[in-house]
Amino acid sequence: MEINYLAAYQLKEKLVKREISCTDIVKSVYSRIDDVEEKLNSYIRLERKGALKKAGEVDRLIDVGNKVADFTGIPLAIKDNMCTENINTTCASRILENYVPIYNATVIEKLTEQNYILAGKANMDEFAMGSSNENSYFGPVKNPWDTGRVPGGSSGGPAACVAAGEAICSLGSDTGGSIRQPASLCGIVGFKPTYGRVSRYGLVAFASSLDQIGPLTRNVRDCAALLNVICGHDKNDSTSIDVEVPDFKKCLESDIKNMKIGVPVELMVEGIDSEVREAVRKTLKLIEDMGGEVEEVSIPSLEHALSVYYIIAPSEASSNLSRFDGVRYGYRNMEQKTLRKMYRKSRAEGFGNEVKRRIMIGTYCLSAGYYDAYYEKAQRVRTLIINDFKKAFKKYDVLISPTSPTTAFKVGERIDDPLTMYLSDICTIPVNLAGLPAISIPAGLSSSGLPIGVQIIGDILREDNVLRAAYSLEEAISFKSRPGL
Amino acid sequence: MKRISKEDVKYVAKLAELEFDDKETEEFTSQLDKILDHIANISSVNTEGIPPTSHVLDVKNVFREDVVKKSVTQESALKNAPDRQSNGFKVPKID
Lengths: 485, 95
Known about the structure:
heterodimer, A: alpha/beta, Amidase signature (AS) enzymes, 13% strand, B: two-stranded antiparallel ribbon, 4% strand
């Protein structure tokens, strides 16, 4: 039995029945890490010692009759932009290489209450900016299905390590597709909840009106269970929503009958790989076979989503990243004799190229004379996109589209052409702009054996519909392939 | 039409507290030009009477009671400082 490839819910059962110990689980995960991590680079920092120690503690707690919660004793990888007390949190950037948080992110506190195990801090694109995980100061992550290819990004590490069995589940963050696109390219499940469902307290901010934390798992049931843990209002994040959180595990009904499904035609155009479109069509056919109603729908404003995103996200990033000035934390060039020179040298040496590029775009869009034409205009077009989605959700329970226009591309293929790289997120970006919940689940393999993902989008706070559709489809698609690594 | 010149890039870099050498400036100018050219297409969208989005949900200002609570200690606040002197962050001369 490969313990490291079991689902969290299966492990829980075995822990409760005392068939395995938490130490067994951690050892199994680490033995896999020893085998494949060198090829993948999906972690920036491993917590082997801490994980084993914690596992021993959890085993003793279970011994004396403590309750086993859904993630008790489960090794998770945490994207390295979520603060972990006394454990380095680098954002895959030189500027935070030695940063040691003095507090835990809210999501970490919530997992800690369940006695989860921190397997390690997962690699990512620097400050979550990128779609290939090639922008990490600690080196690129490779796709477990083909190590000559990228795992997607920016949560490339969290996706690769779950797909490769180096963790049971992980947490990522999604600003324009950073959970769903890598999940799609690595053949796993990735969920971005409604904006504000999960507290962003302790998540290093990239674009505050878009960022959201979410789970990456190997099945929909684990995804729902992890959502149960991390969702909920937090007084430390005033943008988190103060509404009741349903029990997402109860949404796992295998019944799609009479569900109304819209397929945005704008996301099924030529620019999307024909094999990807074919996989989506097959999925839609499965839905119809199960009694769901599928219809094409036009959402015209989607055409502008990429432009809107590449104004709003860099603008917010340029503001958020101004805090990295070498004064209170982070890298400082110690040679400089005056303050401004110190700022400039520290930032120039601390940030990588993609981060600088986005700071420049954002600063330009917010600068005097351009603010109205770019930032404010983008926020108005964003309202149009939101309105269009609202209209669509009056008619449909969920929308379905490809997650990524292509399967995993080759390492180095797009890195010198930022605009082409940005197009990797064309199907996921609109969802963030409208704050909607969406999942990516594996729909099959391409002719060259690479995973293809489909995206299921729900209305604001309707994670239940997304999970119901995803759970039904997961069963119907029955994707059992695993990377041959 | 060129949307951004090398001089613009140098100026924006200054605003952003970044600096580039000549080669980088050249590279960034051509890349930013392409990106700006792409994103500028939203100028053609009719947004008359459409308000800008601030929060995707209808969330208004969030207030809380102003109560004194325990805060981080000076020592932990200074823990990550690259340079310090007694209880403060130390920086080079302000120019």
